[in-house]
Amino acid sequence: MQDPLFDLEAPTKRSRGVQPAPPLADDIALAAALSPRIHLGTSTWSYPGWQGLVWAGRHSEATLSKTGLPAYAAHPLLRAVGIDRGFYRPLAASEFERHAQQVPSGFRFTVKAPSLVTDALLRSEDGRGRQPNPLFLDATAALQDFIEPAFEGLGRCIGALVFQISPLPGPLLARMNEQFDRLHALLLALPKPPAGVIAVEVRDAAWLTPDLVALLRDTGARYCLGLHPKLPPLAEQLPLLRALWPGPLVARWNLNRLHGPYGYEDAEKKYGEFSEMLDPDPETRAELARIIRGTAGAGQEVFVTVSNKAEGSAPLSVRALAQAIVVA
């Protein structure tokens, strides 16, 4: 009997134009072997190069962005997806609701909070900081422009609502006590989501201290395991996860360490259409699989999204990660 937490047969609204690639028998078997508590997915869904992996035909990025989600969600291993574009501008409840209506029951979304509240600087189009952001970690802005629309639009489809705090400028790094106080006050002001969790991801190792553990414990928020060269390797972040145990796991595998902390553009150029796994990282994958198995085995939910920049092709990384979870 299919677990109601993830019903592969649940009806979805499917675009006539974008059809899913025929599922592989091995992927169907892998999906059946995974705990329904494990939600694996990619950081977004609009890549034409996934033809044959996720899509049955060739489509433009714009078409996939608008109408490709139902086909994506039909893939047996893709039980989650990230919504990163809300980082650049807040999304309305109606936009979240449209996404939620296109996926099966059990599918989950990992959503990044807008930079409006997670970046200490207001930036120009080229990414350079122009001036201090007066709404940095502001609870009122977070509620109005992120939490309330996400709650209303996504509801039970929420996996993780992630406050990814951008790299801090030097003067703020020199006053980390103030930043911990700001974050603590923000999280205390947020209501509990109807499903899933609220999580915090950082880009500065200065956050990874007992102070972060204490404020996350006090507020019920989770630490988002950030697999990114700007942070210590996964193994060095494990003590923080252990200190917050038990609880759900939130992880975002963002960028292969070989590209360095500012290597997004280099990775994008190298990986092309993201149709091949060009830089396998079996060590990270195996450690992440071990953590996922332990978390789900203890009855906790798991929300993991993978970027194309992790190994070259996010759908292939998800498949390899599922294999590592099941086979070990």
TrEMBL record:
Residues 1-21 are annotated as: Disordered. InterPro entries: DUF72, UPF0759_sf. PANTHER family: DUF72 DOMAIN-CONTAINING PROTEIN, UNCHARACTERIZED PROTEIN YECE. This is Uncharacterized protein YecE (DUF72 family). It comes from Pelomonas aquatica. The lineage of its organism: Bacteria, Pseudomonadati, Pseudomonadota, Betaproteobacteria, Burkholderiales.
